[in-house]
Model the fold of this input.
Amino acid sequence: MESALRWQDHAVVIAYLVGMLGLGLLLSRRQKSDEEYFLGGRRMPWFAVGLSVIASLLSSLTYLSEPGEVWNAGITNIFGKLLAIPLEMVIVWTFCIPFMMRFRYTSAYEYLDQRFGGGARLLGVVLFVIMVVLWMGFVVLASARALTAVSGVPLLLVILTVGVVATIYTMLGGLRAVVWTDVVQVLLLVGGGLFAIGYVAWATGTWVPQWYQTTMEHLRDANLTDQVPLFSASPLVRSTVVTVAINMCIWHVCTHTANQMTVQRYFSTEDQRAARRSFLTGSLVGAGINVMLVVVGLAMLYFYIGQGLPLDAGLDPLVKQQRDLIFPAFAIHRLPPGMGGGILAALLAAAMSSIDSGVNSIATVMSVEMRRGDRRKNRQTGDAAVSSANHVGRARMFTLGAGMFITVAAYGLSFLPDDWGILDAMPRTFNAITGPLGGMFLVGMFLPSVGQRSILAATACGLATSVGIGYFRELGGLLGTLGLASQPWPSLSFTWVMPCSLAVTFVVAYGLSLCLSEAGPGPGLTWSSRGKQPPPSE
Done:
């Protein structure tokens, strides 16, 4: 496919990539110790941390899927997300941040070691690394496919560019580079969305009311008006407003408790007050960006359907994966020279803001695990501790390795079923781990009677639940080939994956704790004993 990019678009994208590398190089001069490299010296500004958190969580997957979802469900999907915000903010503000900020951790999984034991810590680290490699691999693949489909740039070139650039500036500048590049990237992706909205309003002489009316007429004509009902207890219904709200609430609570990508940001602030300000900033900006992307979707639908124009690049809005490409295709083919490149740069920014967080958090967790092993070895041999400079150098090597693994993972994820869109695929891949991993932390906080054997078994059951629900149809097909299923099994809703896996983890952990005699937690390691001083981390 011949490239649809003009030289001005190439110039904007190249300028963005060079700028990110330059910022990483500039900030690399301050990385002289573990705490500087991993946590920015615990002095990062709360507003920058808040923008960085939302940049990490609102990846290119969101940047693509939200406008595309309007073509299938109108604005009902955003209702579920907005409905979840007040509840998730109360839980994270009241419980998650105050509890975790009591500890001076570098890696969140140090908590699992103190609360349960080394086995739980190891399981948490393994699950986290798998989740991030899948997540970031999916981000790279989705971004690369989108840019390739609408611009004609080779897929391999896009994957390598996104993966390599994000890895290099993160390797150089550590968390400080991640946070400040994320701030730039948030400004870029917000600017890209607002420009697209403004362009459609100017070019058509219309505004949101007309866009909404055209969207509802399109959904009615395509018989899609019942795609997102308020609620349905049937697990066969793709999504409802209520199940989306529950799903998003659980995702945010688990992510702000058990995901190193997020928790590490809060550890980089000075205290609990700054961490809470960061969370509030990220939550409000994130809600605004989601609303903006829905308006982008309304604008795109009006621009094409409302004016009777065919979609660019031959896209079909009835195909899930092609719906996700409508926004970047519009940018390339309809915006003035250079502005299309700006939207693509925003798409790259959305991808890189997640990838840099992923590789940095993996490097942090692995470095802490290696440092822990060094300290144990040193106590046994009586040798001096390894210097901080060596730790930073090793962390950079971990960052490089994580970036390579993520780039390779992008290819493996290309074998996902063709009928899954981005919104459906996320809970069935990396987010299948979110519920069980979050459950380990939440069980540790709120169920003092649960010990290591119980939580390990419960987490395994939670993971089995995620796989069973997410791949229900595929499991039925496998059983059919073995002669164990007479009829095809349907797909279950992706919105049930996280709630069910988290619930199973809690129920099994509590049930086993009633049967097993296990040692109780140390002081300060549960919510009920939070007033006591927790033991120092190793």
